[in-house]
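User: quick one, fold this
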Amino acid sequence: MSKLFTDRLWERVEPIWSSYLDHPFVKGLGDGTLEQEKFEHWLKQDYVYLIDYARLFAIGSAKAEDLEKMTVFAKLLHGVLDVEMDLHRKYAADFGISKEELEATEPSAITTAYTSYMLNLSQRGGVENVVASVLACEWSYNFIGKSLAKWPGALDDNFYKSWIEMYSSNEFTDLAEETKQLMNQVTEGKPEHELAQIEEIVVKTSQFEYMFWDMVDNKENWPVNAR
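Assistant:
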């Protein structure tokens, strides 16, 4: 059996993704010790991140060359808008944050850089660039969720229990698996130089994911304030 492209990607990104599990923010989610103020920052930044992330799936649906791929992108778009963002809205309510306040959040420097990178590559390239741009977020959150779910006590009396349950759920796992299958489909038969370019997008977005965890843990926005 020939090696899948996602197997090749896993070999590249596994060290990066494993480092997420050692990150203080992610560890705090797993053991329940994360400061709620830091989680609130993640909540707001990830919400505005997901708005642009949803746009990527819309771009993918527009660039898809057949109805089957269009349908997959539409399903993934629904997963972001109606499932993932709903969790954010529910958590926000616990903090007394309205939906309007979430949407009014100014993206931080890292959030802006990350989403701009994905949108730029997706608009410039073909459908494979879109899949490469969205893959790390979808797949790595599922990896984190399933990893944390195995930690002792993570699913007991933990304020972040529903976060872990969502990203480790069968529903979210199915979305991640569909994205992986899409990646394997759109890269089939492509020459090595194109595969290398696609691989680099996944590696770069994985690096951005780590920078995002750092940003929310440090409650960063922009380094210098304007008047």
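User: anything notable?
Assistant: The chain is about 80% helix and 0% strand.
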